[in-house]
From TrEMBL:
Protein location: Cell membrane
Record family assignment: Belongs to the sodium:neurotransmitter symporter (SNF) (TC 2.A.22) family. SLC6A9 subfamily.
The keyword Metal-binding is assigned to this record: yes
PROSITE patterns: NA_NEUROTRAN_SYMP_1, NA_NEUROTRAN_SYMP_2, NA_NEUROTRAN_SYMP_3
Organism, as annotated: Horornis vulcanius
S-S pairs: 137-146
PANTHER family (UniProt xref): SODIUM- AND CHLORIDE-DEPENDENT GLYCINE TRANSPORTER 1, SODIUM/CHLORIDE DEPENDENT TRANSPORTER
Lineage: Eukaryota, Metazoa, Chordata, Craniata, Vertebrata
Coiled coil: none
Membrane topology: Multi-pass membrane protein
Protein name: Transporter
Length: 332
């Protein structure tokens, strides 16, 4: 029953700390913890940089030999001890610093990831207009170098002189980039000039922290219910984007680049390093979150099954997101 000498028998349920309402809540929470921007943007970017389909070979090798074993170890470690990433190291006090390191990393991630959520909230709110503000170059924050696809103003500004045409092409920026840098962030000239506080972003950041607070107000009891939406809705959005992407002209070209392996890249050590870092980044191993979430499981839960399901779901999401991104890249 998991008992050790000098310790009372392990209980099926943790009376003091509480448990997940059911096993689906734990699986959905872990999937939501693992699946994120790393799957949607970082994985397709690494495929693009490291030989298309050839990158998937070292990626799945690292998943089998590094990702799943470490994922399973952390789940079983937290589930056995029923402690978070700090208390669990009473098993070997010499490594308690590892727990503090996990806590510091998770704190930094919580702070910067909420900024990402804040930006998502901001774009969600400002997109509720008939004309998106980053569509044209006719806004007060745009520069003469701004060239929009829908503006058609490049030919009107540029003479037929070839040197002028090349110089303008090298300097030109898109309206979406200028909207982001010059209006949303309002970047200052240098690090010595702090600039102003962007009140719209500050308000969205406050909203994101309130949402996090409401999700965690009752611990696993409240967060376990929230994940029914937060862990499944991204798949709805990805599917909508996928259907839209494959109907665009040139989508097949992008998907073929994604699937066609460039085997000469396999011999590059950097490709294998990128595959390993992507596995650790995506699964969230060694950050303390897996140990903490698994600590709310029942003692006899089948965490081996859960680790296989969550790891494969995470990597399958990355591959699926690759089809979405590369279909749009093919169109572009």
């Amino acid at each position: 029953n998991g008992a050790v000498p000098g310790e009372q028998g392990k209980q099926e349920k943790s009376v003091k700390r509480g448990n997940w309402g059911n096993q689906i809540e734990f699986v959905l929470t872990s999937v939501g913890y693992a699946v994120g921007l790393g799957n949607v943007w970082r994985f397709p970017y690494l495929c693009y940089r490291n030989g298309g389909g050839a990158f998937m070979f070292p990626y799945f090798i690292m998943l089998v030999f590094c990702g799943i074993p470490l994922f399973f170890m952390e789940l079983s470690f937290g589930q056995f001890a029923s402690q978070g990433c700090l208390g669990v190291w009473r098993v070997s006090p010499m490594f308690k610093g590892v727990g503090y390191g996990m806590m510091v990393v998770s704190t930094y991630i919580g702070i910067y990831y909420n900024v990402v959520i804040c930006i998502a909230f901001y774009y969600f709110f400002v997109s509720m207009t008939r004309v998106l503000p980053w569509t044209y170059c006719s806004n007060p924050w745009n520069t003469p170098d701004c060239v929009g696809v829908l503006d058609g103003n490049l030919s009107s500004r540029v003479a037929l002189n070839i040197s002028q045409l090349l110089n303008t092409t090298q300097k030109r920026t898109s309206p979406s980039e200028e909207y982001w840098r010059r209006y949303v962030l309002n970047l200052s000239d240098d690090i010595g000039n702090l600039g102003e506080v962007r009140l719209p972003l500050l308000g969205c950041l406050g909203v994101s922290w309130v949402v996090v607070f409401l999700c965690l107000i009752k611990g696993v009891k409240s967060s376990g219910k929230v994940v029914y939406f937060t862990a499944t809705f991204p798949y709805v959005v990805l599917t909508i984007l996928f259907v839209r992407g494959i109907t665009l002209e040139g989508a097949v070209t992008g998907i073929m680049y994604y699937l066609t392996p460039q085997w000469d890249k396999i011999l590059n050590a950097k490709v294998w390093g990128d595959a390993a870092s992507q596995i650790f980044y995506s699964l969230g191993c060694a950050w303390g979150g897996l140990i903490t979430m698994a600590s709310y499981n029942k003692f006899n839960n089948n965490c081996y099954r859960d680790s296989i399901i969550i790891s494969i779901t995470n990597c399958a999401t990355s591959v699926y997101a690759g089809f979405v991104i590369f279909s749009i890249l093919g169109f572009m």
